[in-house]
Amino acid sequence: MTKEKPSLLIVDDEPFFRESLKLAMEGMFVVGEAGSIKGAVESLRLHIPDAILLDINLPDGSGIHLFEELQDYQPMPLVLVMTAYATVDNAVKALKEGATDYIVKPFDIERLQRELAVHLENRSLQRRVVVLDREISRIAPPFITAGSGGMNEIVERAQMIAAFDLPVLIKGDTGTGKEKLAHWIHALSGSKGEVVAINCAALPKDIIESELFGYTKGAFSGAVSYKEGLVEKANGGTLFLDEIGELPESVQAKFLRVLEDGVYYKLGDTKERKAHFRLISATNSDLADPAASFRRDLFYRINGVMFELPPLRERRDDIPLLVEVFIKEANYAYKKNVQELSSRAMKSLLQYDWPGNIRELKWCINRAVALAAGEIADINDMELAAQTGQEPSAGGEPDYSLPLDAALERLEKGYLRHALSAAGNNKTEAAKALGISVRALHYKLDKYGL
User: Fold this and answer.
1) Are 55 and 35 within 8 A, CB to CB?
2) Are strands 376-377 and 7-11 parallel, antiparallel or unpaired?
3) Strand pairing class (57-58; 61-62)
4) CATH 3.40.50.2300 residue ranges in the chain?
5) Which class for 136: exposed (0-12), middle (13-18), buried (19 or more C-beta within 10 A)?
6) DSSP for 264-301?
7) What element of type H or E holds 305?
8) E-assigned strands of 85-183?
9) Average pLDDT over residues 418-425
10) What share of the chain is helix, strand, coil (3-state, %, to 5)?
């Protein structure tokens, strides 16, 4: 893929100098030009360049006045001030206003090109750091905690190994944040690639291979065009395989070769292709168990560093922090202004066992914020009981006056609601958690109008 050229605006009142500089810089930049402050302002309102070469002496005033306009643009373009008058006063004034550097006419074009390239690269790195910090801050809350449930150790190990190209295996119950941890490790690594994720349990086994490796046109019936595989897409980044234990044995052997040799074949193709990525896998089962039908050699290859995420019931001290984060996210999503939960609601959350873990807590807070009428959201014990069919954890009594059929129906509906909530409304995952087929789940949902 051809890298897009950065843009440059030249602001100078001498047409011949402006045109000469434009011709010299067009190999590196998409160049625009202006001969006055007014012309520069008009150009800025149409397009914000990556860099500006700004003359100090312009017909309608000092070029330094342009910084008043530039303050409205964030991030502000990189600005190199040009002048034929090498005075300290002008240099200091320009730098104080936000100029990146100061150059004196006449100057060497090649040197100017090198300086611009260096400044733009530094600016790009600074922006990337800001973006990464923002991404890490967004992803981190489920892991940066008060230190309960062994989370401090997980945080420290994740920070320690993130920069190293080691395969990671994350174990934990559904909803404990395995994919969040994968994204966090990727963000901490500073990788320029993307995270490509696949849930191996959510796909029919007969299409997992084509999803991973892609295929060529005519590879099989229905392959009417070229398809990019996830291995190819993850090249230079991170491949996250959720529920890796669901990989068919035939695919496990092919995937092991990608990890060992960095090569693979698309379906229907004889051309050897190469890919390099960081692998992060997740599972809620014991892959080392012989009954798991998981290749031992593949298990050893993916198990570079293992993390075991504790269920939420073992890290109850973290619930208030998570609630605070999820309230902020829900406020933004639903345009609400909830500041906190009621003390009664928080007590209920701390006593509840959270079978759906962090995912279930997030959906619970989303619902509470969406239904809140003011700045304080509420959740009662019966709401939590209705999610799972459990008795209220704060000591409420089940309704023994109900006939047995009605009580069992209420219990089943509660389990269905909980399974869907904990699985983020993913019916395949919900059916797996309930131990029934997807078809049976659809039947029950239709039966109860859920």
Assistant:
1) no
2) unpaired
3) antiparallel
4) 7-130
5) middle
6) E--BT----EE---EEEEEESS-TTSGGG---HHHHHH
7) strand 305-308
8) 101-104, 168-171
9) 71
10) 50, 15, 35
User: What distance in Å separates the CA atoms of residue 88 and residue 79, rounded to the nearest whole number?
Assistant: 18
Name the DSSP letter for residue 161. Answer: H
Name the CATH code of domain 313-448 (choices 1.10.8.60, 3.40.50.1980, 3.30.450.40, 3.30.70.1130): 1.10.8.60
Rounded Cα distance between 382 and 387, Å, is: 9
> Which of the residue ranges 88-92, 140-144, 199-203 would you say has the lowest mean pLDDT?
140-144
Options 3.40.50.2300, 3.20.20.30, 1.10.10.10, 3.90.45.10; which CATH number does 7-130 get? 3.40.50.2300
Structure token digits, residue 156:
């420290």
On the question of pLDDT at 204 being above 70, the answer is: yes
Distance, CA of 127 to CA of 50 (rounded, Å): 12
Residue with tokens 């090569």: 263
Domain with CATH 1.10.8.60 in the chain: 313-448
- Does residue 74 or residue 178 have the better pLDDT? 178
C-alpha to C-alpha distance for 218 and 195, rounded to whole angstroms: 29
- Quick one: 150-310 is in which CATH superfamily? P-loop containing nucleotide triphosphate hydrolases (3.40.50.300)
The pLDDT of residue 85 is above 70: no
Using the predicted structure, report yes or no on whether residue 339 has a pLDDT greater than 50.
Answer: yes
Q: d(Cα 38, Cα 32) in Å, to the nearest integer?
A: 14
Q: What are phi and psi of 165, to 5 degrees?
A: -80, 60
Find the mean pLDDT for residues 231-244: 93
Strand partners, 195: 238
Q: CATH 3.40.50.300 in the chain, residues?
A: 150-310
User: SS3 for 117?
Assistant: helix
Structure-derived torsion over alpha carbons of residues 203, 208, 214, 220, reported in degrees to the nearest 10: -100
For residues 429 and 201, give the distance between their C-alpha atoms in angstroms, rounded to a whole number: 8
Which tokens hold the place of 295?
């290749």
pTM (two decimals): 0.59
Percent of the chain surpassing pLDDT 70? 84
